[in-house]
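Dear colleague,

Thank you for sharing your sequence with our group. We've completed the structure prediction you requested, and as agreed, I am returning the results in plain text so they can be pasted directly into your records. Please verify that the sequence below matches your submission; if there's any discrepancy, let me know and we will rerun it promptly.
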Amino acid sequence: MRLQTIDIDPVDVDADGISAAATFSGGGVQSFTLGGALTSGGTYTAGDGDAARQISVLSDADDTGRSVAVTGTDADGRAQTETIAPANAGTTESVKYWKTVTAATVDADTAGNLSIGTVDELVSPTIVLDRHSETAALCQINITGTIDITVQVTVSNPQVVASDQESIPWVSTQDAGLVAISADDLGSLDLGATACRLKVNTHSSGGEVQMYLSQPSN
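Please find the predicted structure tokens below.
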């Protein structure tokens, strides 16, 4: 019997928790100072339990022509990079989820302030399943407070085909009781799935979720 537990206890969203607002005027590629409230020693490490989190770039002017390059690791601890295009006086969210951010740069001078922070979407590490099992994995969800989650699965080989977790082709499980839910539930994952992960769609302060996963081995 394979038993695994995921515990996600999100901290509150912080729009400049990774890098405080700053205008860049030194010419060429320039580095953000990773010194926000969510960082330590010049590195951001997600403090949400078993999770990585989407991050955001907030601009207060029109910096749509700029590119912000972020370096760090994904929920599985693998190195990843992403380029984020700032908005015109607004927020742009990353596509990838970040367990750590170790560096961030902007490609040229900016029209106004840019800051880097967090948003309310998270994912757990990848959990490898036994795709040969004749019994589907049983998944128990326990929720405290206000949080909305979805269990995602894949039938690809996550240990071979992906350079980072977000390169894996994830889809929601076919069990509707494990998709976009905000209360305790029990369901089964899809037979033949090779891996799964827990995705937090939104959360409010104090929200928390645990996933308990059991799958018999042949």
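Summary note from our side: The chain has no helices and 18 strands.

Kind regards,
the structure core
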